[in-house]
Amino acid sequence: MAEAVDAAVRADYGRIVATLIRTTGDVDRAQDAVQEAVVRAMSAWERDGVPREPRAWLTVAARRCAIDAVRREAVRGDKQRQAVRAMETEPMIPDESTVRDDLLRLVFTCCHPTLNLDAQVALSLRTLCGLSTAEVARVLLLPEATVAKRLTRAKQKIATARIPYRVPSDAELPGRLRGVLATVYLMYTEGYAASSGDAVVRDALVDEALRLAALLHDLMPDEPSATGLLALLLLQDARRSTRTGPDGAALTLADQDRARWDRTAIDRGMDLVADALRRTPGRADAYVAQAAIAACHAMAPSYVDTDWDAVIAWYDVLLTVTRSPAARLGRAGAVAERDGPVAGLAAVDAVDGLEGHAWWHASRAELLVRLDRRDEARVALDRARAAGLPEAAVSRLEQRLSG
Amino acid sequence: MPQYAAIIYSPDLDWSQPEQAETTAKYAAFGESVASIIRGGAALYPTATATTVRVTDGEVVTSDGPYAETKEVLSGFYLFECTDLDEAVAVAARIPGAAMGAVEVRPVIPMM
User: Between chains, do B64 and A157 touch, taking CB under 8 Å as contact?
Assistant: First the structure.
């Protein structure tokens, strides 16, 4: 029975709590009420069986708990009495569009730009993904006390500084949506970049980022950036199981076993890229362009058969909206694959301002090895190491250099 | 008569909490004793509730937390009544100082 309750709560926690926050006006009270409803579900479902609509059951139960809690406080004052009246006059089970609006409001509150990124990530995991504070701590590799403090502070700021529960106006929406998507993307890349901790922990954060991206796309199906982000994550994540070799070392695109890429995720990602591109004929979007690059790789039967012209063209689109080092270096890398190491090295050297970046030096080292300029490659590799290149990449380059 | 702003620096505590009753009582007594010359004032929530607003090249950038640098100095303040933090940030961003330095926005503890 615990599993049935768990499954229902995991799937719908964000929706249930979002509705409760609107009716109670308070994150803590909403979460307490949902928690109490979950406890009631354990025994009630054991006795009567799992209800046909678990989410509706939990929503109703949580509202009863919230009303009871406010009633207990109602002796204290007018404000609480008003709250009870407001909750009692609401329909017990809100319709689907109300639930969506509630959830959307909660998304924009959790990722409000006046909350720092750490707070946004912790709040999103706790309220939108429904993880407990202990689970959030495990996923973020942080002590539970740190996460608890972070959550308390964020909720205090939402309440006392009056961060509003509302969907931004049309004029504000693009900027605010960018912030929400950036938070989810950061969770995803954090999950992948995690070089410490066991693989399960890392996977959990990646999984939650994927769930959130799917939720955002579901809530805003007409926003190409949200579609682009989900497509990008699906296409990148399709390679998850092939990104490390049997010895645990990271494998690059060239060395991954493409037969083991997740075709279901790739197909879904490809459909989403196509949909997002139809919606952005006139303007470039960073997530859609990155998803298109990931799609080029997903479609290629082998590394050497990659359509590098298409990859470079998409990098050019991406570079019209961002000048990020990763994008500039990515384009130079694609040039090296299409036109050979001489052209590639020229392209990498033309990317200025990255002297402090480990991957810039690593790219140079790689291309210098290919050109058999070993002394220069050695210097580049030393600089890459000094700039903090991950050990796995260092040893791979060392092997190439001595091989 | 000239007017003076008395700007209070003290520990970063939540003065709305019952544990601070002793201090708030002292403030109440002080306020009463000089009521005839007080033209305004407010107690602020702790810096955990602060938002710092800057305008760079016309773009509004908010950050979580108080103003934390020492290059600029406190040069004035407004007391706004707004529906929520979004409105307060939008108005704060229009203060010329937001483009020259920063504006810290902090909620005021309502007086009972």
Answer: yes
